[in-house]
Amino acid sequence: MSYVVDTISNRIVMIISFVLLLVLLILGWKIVDWIWFRPKKLEKLLRRQGFTGNSYRILHGDLKESAAMRKEAMSKPMNFSNHIAPRVIPSVYHTIQIYGKHFIPNISFSSFSSSSNKI
Q1: Which of 9, 104, 107, 116 is 20 to 30 Å apart from 94, CA to CA?
Q2: Which keywords annotate this record (predicted)?
Q3: pTM, entire model
Q4: For the segment 62-104, what is each residue's pLDDT rounded down to a tens digit?
């Protein structure tokens, strides 16, 4: 009798383990899709439409470069003129100078993934 109970309990443990493993794999795939595949797909679609810009980078995007440009811009004295874009938004100004007015702002994976659901 105990052999039958042990066999049934082993099967139940195996089934529960399999279901948990399957749930973890599905959850892992959804996270990878959200962080990597959707942003890359959106980037590819935008590039086909003529948008340019830096390539997608996970988690931080262009934030490090943007912070460095802002720090550098704030450290310099401001000229007396109405041309304040290089001082106020140096990263956007720099990107527009390089890529033109139609560019892909690479902020982080959350910006791409939230807008990728609209396509």
Answers
A1: 116
A2: Membrane, Transmembrane, Transmembrane helix
A3: 0.62
A4: 788 888 888 998 888 887 888 888 888 888 888 888 888 877 7
- What DSSP assignment string belongs to 57-103? -TTTTTHHHHHHHHHHHHHSPPPSSS--HHHHSHHHHHHHHHH-SSB
Question: Cβ(66)–Cβ(89) under 8 Å?
Answer: no
Q: Are 107 and 63 spatial neighbours (Cβ–Cβ below 8 Å)? A: yes
Taking CA atoms, 6 is separated from 2, 13, 20, 98, in Å, by 6, 10, 21, 69
What span, in angstroms and rounded, lies between the C-alpha atoms of 102 and 52?
7
Amino acid at 85: A
Backbone region of residue 53 per phi and psi (left: phi > 0; alpha: psi in -120 to 50; beta: other values): left
